[in-house]
């Protein structure tokens, strides 16, 4: 991402969030869609952590979210506790066309709860909702897991730009609500 400069004075709140989930579920494209409104059909994972910023208005406040992307590290199980450190929110992504990426969510949730902040806001995202004919995970499966684990849930398409903005905004708004309550 080239969107890495930050002016802390230009916002009321600044916080870190992370993207997690199996390889090739669409994390990088969700991020570039949200941060830059771009989609890349043959995006190749690059190695190393990348991040992007985006300002959002929540009520009359300007909230700047710093969103970290694993940038392919999950392939080598190389994500360490430092990736999660200080993160107030996580977007946990699976691919609705690959059942295995849904089955692996348990592993990701375990890792999140081990390394992440206790109050971390987690949004579960079933991506690639445009690929209707290839679907292997029903919407109800995502909803049930979200209910069981107390997560927010949404299906998205980074390709067709469906619900991407909503999913990030849901996470950011929730974090803001928790952060502003704490500072009361
Ligand atoms: P990451 O490894 O989780 O960061 O996944 P990428 O963002 O690199 O995406 C992996 C592949 O899935 C790429 O070929 C993307 O073009 C494709 N992809 C990502 N999101 C979508 C989507 O919403 N719909 C479709 N059809 N393909 C997608």
Automatic annotation (TrEMBL):
The GO molecular function terms of this record are: GTP binding; GTPase activity
As for subcellular location, the record says:
Endomembrane system
Origin, by domain of life?
Answer: Eukaryota
What are the entry keywords? GTP-binding, Lipoprotein, Membrane, Nucleotide-binding, Prenylation
Q: GO CC annotations? A: endomembrane system
Main localization, broad class: membrane
Q: How does it sit in the membrane?
A: Lipid-anchor
Family recorded in the similarity comment: Belongs to the small GTPase superfamily. Rab family.
Name assigned to this protein = Ras-related protein RABA6a
Q: Which organism is it from?
A: Ambrosia artemisiifolia (Common ragweed)
Span covered, complete protein = 1 to 184 of 220
């Amino acid at each position: 991402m080239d969107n890495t400069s930050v002016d802390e004075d230009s916002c009321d709140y600044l916080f870190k969030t992370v993207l997690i989930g199996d390889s090739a579920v669409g994390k990088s494209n969700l991020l570039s869609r949200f941060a830059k409104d771009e989609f890349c059909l043959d995006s190749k994972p690059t190695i190393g952590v990348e991040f992007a910023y985006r300002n959002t208005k929540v009520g009359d406040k300007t909230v700047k979210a710093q969103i970290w992307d694993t940038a392919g590290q999950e392939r080598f199980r190389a994500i360490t506790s430092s990736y999660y450190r200080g993160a107030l929110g996580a977007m946990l992504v699976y691919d609705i066309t690959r059942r295995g990426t849904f089955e692996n969510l348990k592993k990701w949730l375990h890792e999140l709860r081990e390394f992440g902040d206790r109050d971390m806001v987690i949004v579960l995202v079933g991506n690639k909702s445009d690929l209707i004919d290839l679907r292997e995970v029903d919407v109800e499966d995502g909803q049930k897991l979200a209910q069981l684990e107390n997560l927010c849930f949404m299906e998205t398409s980074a390709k067709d730009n469906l619900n991407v903005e909503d999913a990030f905004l849901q996470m950011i708004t929730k974090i803001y609500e928790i952060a502003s309550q704490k500072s009361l």
